[in-house]
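Q: Sequence in, structure out?
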Amino acid sequence: DPERYGVVEFDEDMKALSIEEKPAKPKSDYAVPGLYFYDNRVVDIAKNLKPSPRGELEITDVNKTYLELGELEVRVLDRGTAWFDTGTFASLQQAGQFVEVIEERQGLKIGCIEEIAFEQGFIDANQLQKIAEPLVK
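A: Exactly. Output:
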């Protein structure tokens, strides 16, 4: 369904060659999932964007600017990573069902900020325990 996404084309070293928004004929099978990290220049870049033919400011145009500067870094998500576009009711429902199934069957929480903070060393075991106590059933 590439007409719903941005699509990136890579060279043989997985360096981005091109990026296009909702192409009718995509140059690759790599969708851009919409997870971006920018430096502070992004503010000025965004201020200078012109609306697309659809009348919207496109994040792909920001990414194209970084590509033109030779500074766009694109990473392919690891195997096992699930990504859902939630731009339609059906896709939002699918994403919710996926989260529900994983959490119920595997006993894992998806996007648990407390677990991430603990694993990254931002909080210690005592702080984690204190956060978790009100959640005990």
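The radius of gyration is 19 Å.
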